Structure of RNA polymerase, sigma subunit, SigY:
Amino acid sequence: MRRFIIEWLLGGSKVEEEYLIDLVKEKDETAFESLVEIYKPIIEKFSFQFGVTPEFIPDVVQETFVKIYQKAHLFNDGNFTSWVYRISLNVAKDHFRKLKRDQKLVAKAKLETTLDNKYRYYFEKQEHVILHECLLELDLKYRAPLILYYFHDKSYDEIASILKMRISTVKTRMHRSKNILKKKFEKYEEQEVSYYG
């Protein structure tokens, strides 16, 4: 029966295609299976050309047909093939967004594991590890005063003596370094939000 419908549709008119679509709207399983057999190669080819890698094409094709089945009642007029392409395109876009999100989560997990293993001896909280990473990104001239002041309880006089510079220079570099560090830390927090976005 399905083969008959396919052959009939492929060699038939627009009226016959509309009849098949009407059957799909009514959740006719045989008609839908025929539709899958007709459009599956088209969606596979389009997905591949759009950039979906072969291992994910079956998932994208399946999701496309799920949406076609669910939304068939919304198709009223126009070119049905174009409508299928639009759905396929949207599914592919969703796939890329999910893939990018998953890759970010994996990268974040790997980074946290690496940092945890690398700095477990020195830090108690993940925030301290992040702060340390941000500190390492600072130029040494800004990093040194901050470390001496906040982590070694040195006064401005002592820092000036250790670094062989004027107290006014220490104060200036402390002010600048705190602003730079704050921006770097905030940037990391924004990245944290995007990982889960």
Residues 57 and 107 are 24 Å apart (CA to CA).
